[in-house]
Amino acid sequence: MKKILISLILVLTIVTANAESKLQKILKSGELRVGTTGDFNPLSVKDPATNTYKGFDIDVTTELAKDMGVKITYVPTDWKTIVSGISADKYDISTSATITAQRGLVAGFTSSYYKYATVALVLKKNKNKFRTWDSLNNSNVKIATTLGTSQEAKAKEFFPKSKLISIESPARDYQEVLAGRADGHITSSTEAYTLIKTYPELTIVEDGGKNPASLAWLIDQNDQVWINYVNHWIEIKKISGFFEELLKKYNLKSL
Question: Check: CATH 3.40.190.10 for 115-212?
Answer without folding.
Answer: yes
